[in-house]
Amino acid sequence: MRLTADPSIGFFRSRVPLLKDLLHFTYKEALCCVFPLVIFLALAVTKVVSVPYLPRYDAILLICLAAQALMIRFRLETVDELKVITLFHVIGLCLELFKIHMGSWSYPGEGWSKLAGVPLYSGFMYASVASYICQAWKRFNLRFEHWPAAPLTLLLSVCIYLNFFTHHFIYDFRWILILGLLAAFRRCRVHFTVSTTSYAMPALLSFLLIGFFIWLAENISTYLGAWAYPDQLHSWRIVHWGKITSWFLLVIISVLIVGQLKLWKQAVTSKNVSERPVE
């Protein structure tokens, strides 16, 4: 009598490497999200626990500063990455100052560290996006295929950022910008490594997925009282799905800036190595 192997055994065995990669991917993603998770914890804890004589927004700011210092101390982030994150803190804070002035959203709580109605900790929410991208870049060994030329990426970044301001006064060009992004990145793919296996996906799809998860995080943040949109001042409600496009565009700015800075650094490093005298 001939014994035949159960085909279901072969099916499950063939899926074991994929399952291992999925677990490893989840672990790496958790490491990439350390700083955003700290912000979530700070929002959650300060919502139910108050520090005597210290307003909530100031407590969150101190937690963010301490977390950033610890990430540098334990080498979860490098000094160069801290520079990029600081740049995003400034970019985000400028956007916050304008949006608060225009009434797009508000920070109803009290705080000594509020500037023109904007708590300084808010810049860390933008910095956390840059932190995630920097972490993912090195942990997944990100490589982009058919990355657009530097002048084009710079132009797109500037136009996207300016549109966040100008749409209050003139036409909102976001859909035109999205069409431009589709044209510029139509061939661009991002390659990433999990364990020893390399995967790839369309770059725009990865940006959209990140934007979607940030939108989910935004819903959690507004529920925890991080800030409030006009329709959330009296009772919380889900953030309008249209905000996903805003986060999609902001993610692209973040990736373009981080990516271009890394390319420039690689070029400078290669130039310095080539110019080093042979002893």
UniProtKB/TrEMBL annotation:
Keyword Iron part of the UniProt annotation: no
Superkingdom classification of source: Bacteria
Record keywords, A-Z: Membrane, Transmembrane, Transmembrane helix
Transmembrane segments: 30-49, 55-72, 84-103, 115-134, 146-163, 169-185, 197-217, 244-264
Name of this chain's protein: YoaT
Organism in which the protein naturally occurs: Paenibacillus mucilaginosus 3016
